Amino acid sequence: MAVENVNVSFSVNGVQKCSSVEPRKLLVHHLRDDLGLTGTHIGCDTSQCGACTVMVNGEAVKSCTVLTVQVEGSQVLTVEGLGTMQQLHPIQKGFWEEHGLQCGFCTPGVMIAMVNLLDSNPNPTDEEIRDGLEGVICRCTGYQHIVNAVKHAAQLIAESKKLEIMPIGEGS
Amino acid sequence: MNGMVGTRTKRKEDPRFITGNGHFTDDIHLPGMTYAAMLRSPHAHARIVSIDVSEALQHPQVLAVYTGQDLLNKMKSVPTYWYVPGCNLIAKDRNPLAIDKTHYVGEGVAFVIAKDRYSARDAIELIEVIYEELPVVVNHEDAMEEGTVLVHEDVPNNIAFHWKPTSVPDEVFEQAEVVVKQRFIEQRLIPNPMETRAAVAQYNAGSGDMTLWCTSQNPHIHRNVYADVLGISEAKLRVISPDIGGGFGAKIGVYTEEALTAYAARDLNCPVKWIEDRHEHFMATNHARDEIIDVELAGQKDGTMTAIRVRNIANLGAYVSTMGAAVPTLCFGLMAPGAYDISLAGVEVIGVYTNTTPTDAYRGAGKPEAAYQIERIVDLFADSIGMDPVEVRKKNLISKEKFPYNSAMGCVYDSGNYHEALDIALQMVQYEEFLKQQEELRKKGRYLGIGFSTYVELCGLGPSKVAGATGFQGGLWENATVRVHPTGAVTVFTGTCPHGQGEETTFAQIIVDKFGVPLESIEVIYGDTQIIAQGWGTYGSRTTAVGGAALAIAADRVFAKAKKIAAHELEVSEDELNFERGVFSRKDLPESKRTFIEIAKSANMSWNLPEGMEPGLEAQAFFDPENFVFPFGTHICIVEVDVKTGTINLQRYIAVDDVGNLINPMVAEGQVHGGIAQGIGQALWESAVYNEQGQLVSGTFMDYTMPKARFLPKIETAFTQTPSPVNPLGVKGVGETGTTAAPPAVVNAVMNALQPFGIKALDMPLTPEKVWKALQKEGTKVDS
């Protein structure tokens, strides 16, 4: 209570942010409550569900277990920075086209985790996708359409690479 | 017509979710917002000696701390909503906060309002409660014993109700050629939608208007109850369900926290937000199942099943929750004979209070339990007479000629072709081939098993007269308004409240086919009690079967008016018009035409309407179905059990479902997949566990195993389509099929794999430890 706020500076979706936050404030709360980026969700308090997954310096992390002060100087990517309706990221297209979501609550975190997977493994098998989904829980889909969505996204990325178009949000 | 119904149409709702623009309750941020947190009882049963909130109140960010005493005579307690008659129901209503005594771990004791989330949590730690612990009763069978702990002092033997609508004489069982008996434990489950419960309340002290955003599957029910609890006119309380991150039944319930949030917003005259964390969800949101089910099946050596008798002892938890009395009685009991032509059925249900979290509806609600006991006992019956379980099913499944079928429990099953679904599933699995493979592998010490589930379930709740006769405190009709704007854009208002099932799309598909307007021009609105006069929400697979039906009728009314206007403008009678792809044209002069969109403009401008016609193009319809609908199907599971470790490997899962006509096969498939995942979850992993002190030891995702992607096999699905005669769409309801069908399919498969070891029955969840222990005990019978 009595601890003073600290200044934190980092980039979110390519925009530099400077904030004064409580040292104990979780990144997910800062993103949602202070920066208004409510696409990142909170589904649990044990880092099991992955709904809060964001990218920090190109690596998927659970923003409910990261203190805001820890991302000082980092580049953070949330679902809002993934793509726009005019230019959807391949993972977003994949989820839409292959019915990879139902209630949509876990979806932002799942998509970010899967972007991370596809960065390191551009052509994953069903098995590898299911393994890659270890850090997330979806209660609606039974995962099968998520697996299809990720495969579809992988294909779209491969096609876009052929055309030498870099998909948005790849790497950092 | 465009024929969009029946196609795999991409969902309209997805763009907002995939771009992070969903709008869930916790995303709402209002000027001057304050935050609530609940102090919960750490004891399952304790007298509250004293509560000292003084230190919490000194916290600079804290605005208020409420205790049960503070709220006496200011708020009513929260009641149950289904007073099932004929069972001497003693319902105990929930106080907003515990007053003298706490009844389960997680019951609210004090409610803190602070200027920010973290301070609200901090302040909870500053409240000092002195408890005097009381003896605890957790198990429902123990709770019924004489002289045991009483959860409520005025409820003898903790028995909340005793329901016995039908019975079968002892002689029937005494004289039967074959009788199989088995006790099945339906373990306690926690629904766990990924979004926990949440509420935001805003009060206008000038107008007296209260707006409550909350995670509700049925905002009108919540409005009706909370208005009464808070002493606010229904007209002044607006309940809004924004985007909801899954419900699965947990968000049907009427709770105390949502009402408290609204109370505090009014009391403090500032917006209040309460967000349940996951640990609280485990403790405080309604649990499910938790029943001890004893089954006796009578039959003949030739495989004919003649009578079933079921006794279900249901753990209600510390209170009768919203639907708490109906789930184990009506929802379970009416489906006890399953999909079989059994002429005699006796059902008895005892609802029992314990020092645990209340139980209520969870995906399927009663029907999964019914399907489980009948599908398991059928396998045990087949085993006892040495007959193939498929043959027993074929012999006893209700044949298609018998529909509509009057069941021994008094239900009229609307339509069905149960044998066809079974046959297709058998073809998909290649049963004969599997049996050969199973035999060969057994010789090599590998144990495969196959399990069948030929289920039927009661869905599409349901006729209002049945609701009234069975004590439900609401109607079960549904309503829809279809409004066509001057541009031809269409807004649909429905009293149902989807939360992930995709009805924004499926309802729009129906409108596309009715009017020939593009999908993009249709908006489906739900979840707001100020915009929709009344509705009864989403549960029991009723959204499309009842709400969609109301929508179709309203759309037909709109279309009839549009056609009258078109005939007037084209100067012919209505009979002389064609309508195709959104265009009315004269049969005799096809080039003389009006589009539906042009008619929308005409109707709304009202410059030249038929004599006496009211302006506008809008209609409302109320649909009260004459009966429930009964989806059915066959699921087959193949597993391999590693007899050295007890590990179960799911090899194949086949689902053939008949949910009536399909509006969007892709969405239906998604519902089937999700339901199966939850059903498999129950069969193999999920379980809410209390210790003897009433502590919930499975209180986080660390201790409660949720199905993850790599746990599950690829699910092979197929549909047959037997239209339901009880609604104009011929639909049945798909959301609960998988959860109902999967547990017995999986458990039957495991039991089939363990057959050589003489293991006939194990209770869910079939954890490796449980299977391994059973093998250690029985394993000596067979060399493995």
How many domains comprise the coordinates of chain A? 2
- Shape, per Cα inertia axes of chain B: globular
**Residues in helices of chain A, as a percent range:** 25-40%
Q: How are the strands ordered across the major sheet of chain A?
A: 2-1-5-3-4
- The share of residues in extended strands of chain A comes to 5-15%
Structural class of chain B: alpha+beta
Write down the Rg of chain B.
Answer: 28 Å
Biggest sheet statistics of chain A: 5 strands, mixed
Overall outline of chain A: globular
Q: Name the chain pair with the biggest interface and residue counts per chain.
A: A-B, 62 and 63 residues
Would you state the CATH class of the largest domain in chain A?
A: Mainly Alpha
> Counting H and I runs of at least 4 residues, what is the number of helices of chain A?
5
List key phrases describing it.
heterodimer, A: 172 residues, alpha+beta, Ubiquitin-like (UB roll), DNA polymerase, domain 1, globular, B: 784 residues, seven-stranded mixed beta sheet, 20 helices, 29% helix
Topology:
The complex is a heterodimer of chains A (172) and B (784).
Chain A: E1 6-12, E2 15-21, H1 27-34, E3 53-56, E4 59-62, E5 75-77, H2 90-97, H3 107-120, H4 126-132, H5 144-162
Parallel strand pairs in A: 1-5
Antiparallel strand pairs in A: 1-2, 3-4, 3-5
Chain B: H1 14-18, E1 34-40, E2 46-52, H2 54-58, E3 62-67, E4 101-102, E5 108-114, H3 117-125, E6 128-133, H4 140-143, E7 159-166, H5 170-174, E8 178-189, E9 198-204, E10 209-214, H6 219-230, E11 237-240, H7 256-268, E12 272-275, H8 278-284, E13 288-299, E14 305-317, H9 327-333, E15 344-353, H10 367-385, H11 389-396, E16 405-406, E17 412-413, H12 418-429, H13 431-443, E18 447-456, H14 464-469, E19 478-484, E20 490-494, H15 503-515, E21 522-525, H16 543-570, E22 577-580, E23 583-586, E24 593-595, H17 596-605, E25 618-623, E26 632-642, E27 647-658, H18 665-684, E28 715-720, H19 737-753, H20 768-778
Parallel strand pairs in B: 1-12, 10-11, 14-15, 20-21, 27-28
Antiparallel strand pairs in B: 1-5, 2-4, 2-6, 3-5, 7-15, 8-13, 9-10, 9-12, 13-14, 16-17, 18-26, 19-20, 19-25, 22-23, 23-24, 26-27
